Amino acid sequence: MWFNPIMIWLLKSPLHFFVSKNMMLINFTGRKSGNQYTIPVNYLQDGDTLYTTSWRERTWWRNLRDGKVVSLRLRGENVEATPEVTESDERVAALLSTYFQLAPNMARYFEVGLDPEGQPLPDDISTAAKTRIIVQFKTQ
Q1: Averaged over 109-129, what is the pLDDT?
Q2: Which of 57, 15, 56, 16 is nearest to 40 (CA)?
Q3: How many CA atoms does the CB half-sphere of 132 hold within 13 Å?
Q4: How many domains does the chain have?
Q5: Distance in angstroms (rounded) separating the CA atoms of residues 104 and 129
Q6: Residue 113: strand, helix, or coil
Q7: pLDDT per residue over 32-82, tens digit each?
Q8: How far apart are CA 76 and CA 139, in angstroms?
Q9: Range of the domain at 98
Q10: Residue 130, SS3?
Q11: Which residues contact 67 (CB under 8 A, 6 or more apart)?
Q12: 94-112, pLDDT tens digit by residue?
């Protein structure tokens, strides 16, 4: 994507604070190529766990399936973390429920409606889970 190099530069710069509240960099090694990659992603944090999502058809997250420690650029600091990729529809749906409880405003980006109490609609979550994966990062 055209904006990735800009976001990478910004997140590595002293100006990271403009975007690092909800964006971070993931540095990982390609499983087939052995090349180093750096990608910017949105995240949510709950304690020592960071959550990010991706469309299933994207491929970058497949490099994290092995659970090897990766480097994150998180709020201007380099942090090591262990990724866990979740792909099953049922488990993704459960994690999306947690995700939307942490940030209900994110539901609209996933086309998930909220009930009158502000809780995500289960049928919408199930639909969203069919097109997404979730990666959880446990920080070291």
Answers
A1: 94
A2: 16
A3: 25
A4: 1
A5: 16
A6: coil
A7: 899 999 999 999 999 999 999 999 999 999 999 999 999 999 999 999 999
A8: 15
A9: 4-139
A10: coil
A11: 82, 83, 84
A12: 999 999 988 999 999 999 9
**Burial of 16 from C-beta contacts in 10 A (0-12 / 13-18 / 19+):** buried
- Residue 69's nearest CA partner among 28, 30, 38 is 28
State the DSSP code for 92.
H
Torsion sign over Cα 109, 44, 90, 84: positive
For residues 91-120, one letter each, b for 16 or more C-beta atoms within 10 angstroms of the residue's C-beta and e for the rest, the string is: ebbebbbebbeeeeebbeebebeeeeeeeb
CA end-to-end distance (rounded Å), the chain: 30
Q: Are 25 and 76 in contact (CB under 8 A)?
A: no
Q: What is the widest separation between alpha-carbon atoms in the chain? A: 49
**CATH number of the domain residue 67 falls in:** 2.30.110.10
